[in-house]
Amino acid sequence: MRIVVIGAGGTIGKAVVAELAPRHEVIQVGKTRGDYQVDIADLDSIRALFEKTGKVDAIVSTAGNVHFGPLSEMTPELFNIGLKDKLMGQVNLVLAGQQYINDAGSITLTSGILSEDPIRYGSSASMVNGALESFVRAAAIELPRGLRINAVSPTVIEESMESFGPYFRGFEAIPARRAALAYSRSIEGAQTGRIYKVW
Ligand SMILES: NC(=O)c1ccc[n+]([C@@H]2O[C@H](COP(=O)([O-])OP(=O)(O)OC[C@H]3O[C@@H](n4cnc5c(N)ncnc54)[C@H](OP(=O)(O)O)[C@@H]3O)[C@@H](O)[C@H]2O)c1
């Protein structure tokens, strides 16, 4: 398959590329690194990306920023970071990307454990992850041409514990390569509308 991975240079993205590259043609995309660059918060930038890549069999997103901070200090602008980048950025990928996916292809987005298991300072991440998962279930019943869509919801990643560890006390971290298997299941399997929890 021809697979575009957006966020390919990141902690999870690198493991997804390592999982898929032995079997597939993987196009690596980032905001500043990779074969191509895109800003998923900008629909025109996404359209320009797919004009360059041409048609693909799978779109994977391991990208998306949210602001972490105490609820008492959150502002609409700080919530807007996650809404614009992680939520609408990944929704934009579906809106613009569906025209560039071959029949029976797939889209795999990334949410995260905080949709169900909140932590201090994670209100924006919980909100965005929950919305993404609801969007994936809804989009799955409308996508045409046998296109499928799933989300991977990882718990905290071992390789990120140096920075995230203090916020995730008591959580069992998983290696990024374990999360990567769920992306493979989404792309190379047959399911749709699923949220793969890797906890
Ligand atoms: N790490 C964890 O423990 C963990 C756990 C659960 C869920 N998640 C979620 O998984 C996703 C990836 O996390 P990560 O830790 O792998 O992140 P990361 O290491 O910071 O990597 C993020 C990747 O996304 C790209 N990117 C960032 N903003 C972008 C934008 N607006 N448009 C296009 N590409 C963009 C970056 O590109 P460049 O490098 O080219 O700039 C980079 O390749 C995030 O949504 C995160 O919330 C992470």
Q: Strands, helices and their partners?
A:
Blueprint: E1 2-6, H1 11-20, E2 25-30, E3 36-37, H2 43-53, E4 56-61, H3 76-97, E5 101-110, H4 123-140, E6 148-154, H5 161-164, H6 176-188, E7 195-198
Parallel strand pairs: 1-2, 1-4, 2-3, 4-5, 5-6, 6-7
Helix pairs in contact: 1-6, 2-3, 3-4
Bound molecules: NADP nicotinamide-adenine-dinucleotide phosphate.
Outline of the structure:
The chain is α/β, with parallel strands linked by helices and 199 residues long. It has helices at residues 11-20, 43-53, 76-97, 123-140, 161-164, 176-188; strands at 2-6, 25-30, 36-37, 56-61, 101-110, 148-154, 195-198. Helix 2 (43-53) runs parallel beside helix 3 (76-97) and helix 3 packs parallel to helix 4 (123-140).
Describe this entry's structure for a reader.
It is a single chain. It contains six helices and seven strands. 43% of the residues are buried. It has a seven-stranded parallel beta sheet, with helices on both faces. The mean pLDDT is 98. The two termini are 28 Å apart. It has helices at 11-20, 43-53, 76-97, 123-140, 161-164, 176-188; strands at residues 2-6, 25-30, 36-37, 56-61, 101-110, 148-154, 195-198. The protein has 199 residues and is an alpha/beta fold. Helix 2 (43-53) runs parallel beside helix 3 (76-97). The structure holds NADP nicotinamide-adenine-dinucleotide phosphate. NADP nicotinamide-adenine-dinucleotide phosphate binds at residues 6-13, 30-34, 38-41, 62-65, 85-86, 89, 110, 112, 154, 156-157, 160, 164.
